[in-house]
């Protein structure tokens, strides 16, 4: 199960990277088009769709690598069972919150598909297509938070922390 979950997080991160490459392509196409006096309709909209999908798909991988911003002011003052209790509470709350976010993201994409909702731009993209990236990303993030909660309850959670703040000068 651990390998499957890690593969899910890594796969979502790889897909996020692929969407970032697509974003780069849209921006370059727009810049080159301006320089050579041609316009490709929808490049701005598709750049936005790709950026949103990339951001949401990378959330779970970022969480599992300990790269999310985390306020540890209270946790730093606690120890023992109080600290573990606060960790469990925070992870349970985050799991519930992201599960709701995932549910409503999926519902939004489903409703957009059901209503044949399209973007207001010149590209008239069916909105469920770009919303899929957000929906999938939030579902994977909810899975990652539940995974962290289960690991914390079992005493197997390893908190990976970034030493990035230590490098500030």
What's this model, at a glance?
This protein is an all-alpha fold and 169 residues long.
Task: Describe the protein's architecture and organization.
- By secondary structure, this protein is mostly helical.
- It has one domain.
- The protein has 5 helices and no strands.
- Helix 1 runs antiparallel to helix 2, helix 1 packs antiparallel against helix 5 and helix 4 runs antiparallel to helix 5.
- The longest helix has 35 residues.
- It is elongated, with a radius of gyration of 20 Å.
- The mean pLDDT is 88.
* Residues in β-strands, percent: under 5%
Number of helices: 5
Largest sheet: none
Mean pLDDT: 88
Secondary-structure blueprint:
Elements: H1 2-35, H2 43-64, H3 73-77, H4 80-114, H5 128-154
Helix pairs in contact: 1-2, 1-5, 2-5, 4-5
Short descriptors:
single chain; 169 residues; mainly alpha; 5 helices; 73% helix; 0% strand; elongated
């Amino acid at each position: 199960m651990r390998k499957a979950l890690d593969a899910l997080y890594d796969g979502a991160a790889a897909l996020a990277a692929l969407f970032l490459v697509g974003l780069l392509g849209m921006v370059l196409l727009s810049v080159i088009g301006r320089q050579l006096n041609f316009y490709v309709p929808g490049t701005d909209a598709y750049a936005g769709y790709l950026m949103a999908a990339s951001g949401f798909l990378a959330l779970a991988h970022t969480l599992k690598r300990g790269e999310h911003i985390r306020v540890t002011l209270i946790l730093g003052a606690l120890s023992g069972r109080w600290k573990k209790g606060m960790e469990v509470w925070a992870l349970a709350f985050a799991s519930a919150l992201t599960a709701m976010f995932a549910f409503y993201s999926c519902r939004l994409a489903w409703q957009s598909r059901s209503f044949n909702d399209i973007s207001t731009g010149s590209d008239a993209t069916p909105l469920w297509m770009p919303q899929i990236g957000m929906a999938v990303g939030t579902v994977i993030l909810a899975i990652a938070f539940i995974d962290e909660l289960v690991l914390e309850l079992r005493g197997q959670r390893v908190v990976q922390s970034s030493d990035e703040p230590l490098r500030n000068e």
